[in-house]
Structure formats: structure tokens, C-alpha cells
Design brief:
The complex is a heterodimer of chains A (293) and B (333). Chain A is an all-alpha fold and 293 residues long. In chain A, 80% of the residues lie in helices and 0% in strands. Chain A folds into two domains: 71 residues, no CATH class; 213 residues, MetI-like (MetI-like fold). The longest helix of chain A has 36 residues. The longest helix of chain B is centred in the first third of the chain and has 39 residues. Helix content of chain B is 73%, strand content 1%. The radius of gyration of chain B is 26 Å and the shape is globular. Classes of the chains: A mainly alpha (293), B mainly alpha (333). Chain A: It is a multi-pass membrane protein.
Chain lengths: 293, 333
């Protein structure tokens, strides 16, 4: 306590120098952050505003606001079937992936967290090793495998592998959470006649809602942005997800920059909206592993 | 007690090693344990099946097909050629170039991208106006898919109407104009720029989270001992951020090893292979040229590299972190 006051007093001893220094520091701090902010936001604004121009305006008037505003690029995409179709496909695949990976992982994590059995740690390690498998390594054999089973051009050809690759991180996060729920609760439930299945379903899962939300958000974002797997599994454009759709649209209209920008921006909207809603779960989930080791 | 719970059994199991001497088991305890085993099996089965079939089996399939010359059609591969696919890969300029380019991206990430993220995290950790907004903004690119990012930057870096060249022209730096992605000498730099745009916010978020885990008192104590803000960072914050930094480096490296989406959309590996990565080469041979055997060999090499890296990293770099984590976990149980 005394030490702290001394420390504060010494720093107050030279108020003038400190004031100017901190002003300088604040200024440079803000400059750096604003420059970096511009680096991030300019490409996004370029897309957003560029979508309201036509391609001629993009080269003659690259920086200004569009004159006249051309909303046609956006309205054409919004009134076209493929965009909504892709939105639906991406949503369906993301939700199905999340449902499967979270359901299956919750069951496994429950067992890993609250039962003792031979080989438990070995099995758990097996799953954690999966965390280190790059998805790209498995894509070719997965394709061969799914072709043999007949899951090409089938949404489950994307959903099931995505769920499988999501297992490690989901199981790790859920197991850590399940371990924090006090044993006394389970004992009390048991005394009241609850089976372990009942405890899992009626007590553990409802209590784990925040953790379940976090891992669901992680699974949804990963699925939403996945490109490689849909690229090899879906040949039929009816199953195109948003990333595939953007790539196809780009291939189709590669010279019409403004129109592509409109498509790109409209494809960002759902992801950014979801980020705005689920920011806490997303960041919480991503940082959980990295900070706790 | 209508239903004997597993909780009765578990402490006893945990306190002795599984192979240790068995204490006398009463019939009811044996029944309980059997029922527990049934639950364990049923609950683990879906995860094991999914993981085994769609994560582990593909690796095995790749290893198997990598020793054949196979176009992927007509039943099982039959033209066994031993390790020829592997010797071919390591003798191929493109593939060796993939390795070199991967290494370049890793080095650039560690030397530029991660320090930048760390610096920004330290800045945003201070009290300043708009801090929450900047954090939200810097992380936003991470949420966008690689394809969207790639297409957007293709437009920005395009030679004629692209924003990058327009800006350079407007500020009188015409000599710096370039066809960024179409030029072998600038393509890697451009790719790295896009990667930084997309991923620095992610690493920043990791560092911010790590920083918040460090007690304020430590910095204050150092300040009282006369440490300036640089010294505080160097001798207090940085060492304590160690685990986070190590994870962030790990994720960077694994990401660079499997880099595909961004490259595919931005350049497809061109011009003349100058931005190709292992995953792109694998895709070209596996899906465009139907040389499945050779492409499998590349997959196996990618797997080998990530596995060796992950194990070595775990063994030599992450060990102290996980050791701590494991011992504290043991203590808790």
C-alpha cells in the first residue's frame, strides 16, 4: 500500500513532462490504430461503394461516391434465384453440421469428463491429435471415400466430414466445461432417482448452454466459410454454398467488376450479421484453447 | 438409493492405477461397472465412428493409394510402384518450390504478422477511446470466408481498375504500380498482404485474451521497481504471454502448411507456379489431372510434415505449457 502511494507520488512529481508525453503517446497510439483501421476498412468500403457504381465509373472515379448511384447490381443479385438458393444451402449445411458435431461431441465429452474407464486418456488424446490434422490432407481420400459411398452431390457429403473434423475442438471445450460442474449435483440427482442418462439430458446439457452456444458458433462459422470440401463434393450448382457461389459468379462475370463487388458484399452480410450477434461466443471459443493451454 | 451411481465407483478407480491390484468387488459393484461400461460405449460410439471413418480412415486411404500409379477410376488401384510418387515429388521443381514458398510464408508470418498483431493487442489493451470498436473491426476479416476475401482482393489488386494501383497513381507513385497478382516477383508479397489483412485480427484477439489473463499487479510492481513501459513489456508481459505466443505460432504454421482457399481464388497458384502451395499442387494433380496416386503422395507428405511439426512442437516448445495444464488438471480431479 505504501509502496503504491510512493510510486504514484514519484510519477506525479513531474507533471508537465508527463502530460506532454502522454499526449504524444495518445496521439501516436491513435494514429497507428487509425492507419490500421483504414487498412482493414478500405477494402470493405471499396466493395460496398463499388457495388453501387458501374464498371466505367470504377476506373474514372475510383475514390468518390458513385454518381449516379447504380443500385442495379445489388437488386439484380437480390432478385436472382442463385443467391437465395446458396444462402439456404449454406444455412442448412452449417446448422446440420453444428447439430451433429455438438450432439455427438456432448455425448463423448460427458463420458470423458465424468466416467472413469480404461483407455480413457488414450482415446481422448486420439481426438486431440485430430486437432492437428490439416483438413487439406484428407480431402482427396475423403473424395474417393465419399464417391464410393455415393455421397457426392449430397449435402451429407459435406456435413458429415465437417462434423467429424469439428469433433476434436468441440470435445475439448465441452469436456473442460462438464468437469466444472460439481460432483455433488450429480450425487443429488442420483439420490433423487436420476439415471446418468437423465442427468446428462436434463441437468448437464441445460447447464452447459453457454458452452454449447460457443461450440455451435465455432462449428457454424467453420462450415459457413468452408470452400475446399464443397468445391470437390458439389458438382451440381443447385447445392452451391455461398463461397462456391461467389467463386462461380466471379468466373462468370469476371470483367464486370462492379457486379462482382455487389455479389461479394451481399455474401458478406450474413457472416457479418452473425458475427455482430455471436461475437462473444465466437471470440470466447477461439481464445479458450489458446490461453488455457 | 434407487439407482447406484457411478460416482460411488469412480473415486476408487481413480485412486489406484488401472493395472494395480483389484480390491474385492461386490456383485452389485460389478453390475454397476458393467452398466457404466455400456453407457460409456454407447455415448462414445457415434464420435468414434464419425472420427474413425472420416478423419482417420482417409489418412490411411491416402497412405495406401500413394504407393500406386492410379487414375482413380475403375475399382481399386493395382499398379504398385513403391515410393516412386514420393521420389517424383521431391525431384519436382514445383513441389520443392511449394515447400520453399510455404517456408517463406511461415517466416513472414512469424516475423511480421504476429509481431504486428502483438503490438496492436498491446495498444488496444490500454485505455483509449473506441477500443471496443477497433477490436471488433480488426477481427471482422477473420469472419469472412477466404473466397470472399480472395475475390475482393482480386478486384483491388487488378492491374487496371484495381484500387491499389489507383491509389498509387493518385499520390504520384506511378512507378510502383504493378500487376500484383499476375507478376511472379510481386505475387507472394501480395498474397502475404491479403493473409495479413485476413488473419492479423485473429492473432490480436488471442494476444488480447492472453494479456487479460496476466494480473495487473505484476506490471504495477515492476513499475514501482522503476521499469519503464518497454521494460514492463519485455520482462513481464512478453514472458507471461509465452503460452499464447506459442499457440499462435503453431496455428500460423499449420495454416500455412494447408493453405489453399486464398491462393486458389487469388491466383490458382500462378503465374507459372510462383504462388503455388502444396495443397494447390495436390488439388491440381488429384482433381484436374486425375493422377490420384501422385496427389495422394503429396497429401501424405503434407500429413507427415504437420505431424512431425506438431509432435516436435509439442515435445520441445509446448511441453512446459501442457505440463502445467495436465498437472493442474490432475490436481483438480
Amino acid at each position: 500500500m505504501t509502496a503504491a502511494t510512493t510510486g504514484r507520488r514519484t510519477s506525479r512529481a513531474r507533471p508537465v513532462a508527463r502530460g506532454r508525453l502522454s499526449w504524444l503517446r495518445t496521439m501516436s497510439l491513435h494514429t497507428v490504430v487509425i492507419v490500421l483501421g483504414a487498412f482493414v476498412i478500405v477494402p470493405l468500403l471499396f466493395g460496398l461503394i463499388g457495388g453501387f457504381k458501374d464498371t466505367a465509373q470504377l476506373s474514372t472515379n475510383p475514390f468518390g461516391l458513385p454518381s449516379p448511384w447504380v443500385p442495379g447490381n445489388y437488386t439484380e443479385v437480390l432478385t436472382s434465384g442463385p443467391y437465395w438458393r446458396q444462402l439456404f444451402n449454406s444455412t442448412f449445411i452449417a446448422l446440420a453440421t453444428a447439430l451433429i458435431v455438438v450432439g455427438v461431441s456432448a455425448m463423448a465429452a460427458f463420458v470423458f469428463a465424468r466416467f472413469a474407464f480404461r483407455g480413457r486418456e488414450t482415446l481422448f488424446t486420439l481426438f486431440t491429435i485430430g486437432l492437428m490434422f490439416p483438413f487439406a490432407v484428407a480431402i482427396l481420400p475423403l473424395f474417393i471415400l465419399l464417391r464410393t459411398i455415393g455421397l457426392l452431390d449430397n449435402p451429407f457429403g459435406v456435413i458429415l466430414p465437417q462434423a467429424a473434423f469439428g469433433l476434436p475442438v468441440t470435445i475439448i471445450v465441452l469436456r473442460a466445461f462438464f468437469r466444472t460442474i460439481p460432483r455433488e449435483l450429480e450425487e443429488a440427482a442420483t439420490i433423487d432417482g436420476c439415471t446418468s442418462l437423465g442427468f446428462f439430458w436434463r441437468i448437464l446439457l441445460p447447464m452447459a448452454r453457454p458452452a454449447l452456444a460457443t461450440v455451435s458458433v465455432l462449428a457454424i462459422v467453420a462450415s459457413w466459410n468452408n470452400f475446399f470440401l464443397p468445391l470437390v463434393i458439389f458438382n451440381d450448382p443447385n447445392w452451391s454454398t455461398i463461397p462456391l457461389g461467389v467463386q462461380q459468379f466471379y468466373g462468370q462475370y469476371s470483367s464486370d467488376t462492379a457486379r462482382i463487388l455487389a455479389y461479394v458484399v451481399l455474401s458478406m452480410v450474413p457472416a457479418l450479421a452473425f458475427y455482430a450477434v455471436a461475437e462473444r461466443q465466437l471470440i470466447g471459443g477461439l481464445t479458450a484453447g489458446a490461453t488455457k493451454g | 438409493m434407487t439407482r447406484p451411481a457411478l460416482t460411488d465407483v469412480r473415486p476408487e478407480i481413480l485412486t489406484r492405477s488401472p493395472r494395480g491390484g483389484r480390491p474385492p468387488v461386490t456383485p452389485s459393484a460389478r453390475g454397476r461397472r458393467a452398466r457404466g461400461l455400456v453407457t460409456v460405449t454407447l455415448f462414445l460410439l457415434p464420435a468414434l465412428v464419425l472420427f474413425g471413418l472420416l478423419v482417420l480412415a482417409p489418412i490411411a486411404v491416402a497412405m495406401y493409394t500413394s504407393v500406386f500409379k492410379w487414375n482413380g477410376l475403375g475399382g481399386l488401384p493395382s499398379d504398385f510402384i513403391g515410393l516412386d510418387n514420393f521420389t517424383r515429388a521431391f525431384g519436382d521443381e514445383v513441389f520443392v518450390g511449394d515447400l520453399r514458398r510455404g517456408l517463406v510464408l511461415i517466416v513472414l508470418s512469424i516475423l511480421i504478422q504476429l509481431p504486428l498483431s502483438l503490438a496492436i493487442a498491446m495498444l488496444l489493451n490500454q485505455k483509449m477511446r473506441g477500443r471496443a470498436f477497433y477490436r471488433l473491426l480488426f477481427f471482422a476479416p477473420y469472419v469472412l470466408s477466404e473466397v470472399i476475401t480472395g475475390v475482393l482482393f482480386t478486384m483491388i489488386l487488378s492491374p487496371d481498375t484495381g484500387l491499389a494501383n489507383q491509389i498509387l497513381g493518385a499520390v504520384g507513385l506511378d512507378s510502383l504500380r504493378s500487376s500484383w497478382l499476375a507478376e511472379p516477383s510481386t505475387v507472394m508479397m501480395s498474397l502475404f498482404l491479403v493473409m495479413t489483412w485476413k488473419y492479423f485480427g485473429f492473432h490480436m484477439i488471442l494476444y488480447l485474451a492472453g494479456r487479460q489473463g496476466i494480473p495487473r499487479e505484476l506490471g504495477e510492481a515492476a513499475a514501482i521497481d522503476g521499469a519503464g513501459s518497454w521494460d514492463q513489456f519485455r520482462y513481464v508481459t512478453l514472458p507471461l504471454l509465452g503460452p499464447t505466443i506459442r499457440i499462435s505460432v503453431f496455428l500460423s504454421v499449420i495454416g500455412a502448411i494447408q493453405l489453399f482457399d486464398l491462393v486458389w481464388v487469388l491466383t490458382s497458384g500462378g503465374p507459372i507456379h510462383s504462388s503455388e502451395t502444396m495443397a494447390v499442387t495436390m488439388f491440381q494433380f488429384g482433381f484436374k489431372r486425375t493422377q490420384i496416386g501422385y496427389a495422394s503422395a503429396i497429401s501424405v507428405v503434407m500429413f507427415g510434415i504437420s505431424l512431425v511439426f506438431a509432435l516436435a512442437y509439442q515435445r520441445f516448445v509446448l511441453r512446459r505449457d501442457t505440463e502445467g495444464a495436465i498437472t493442474s488438471m490432475r490436481g483438480k480431479r
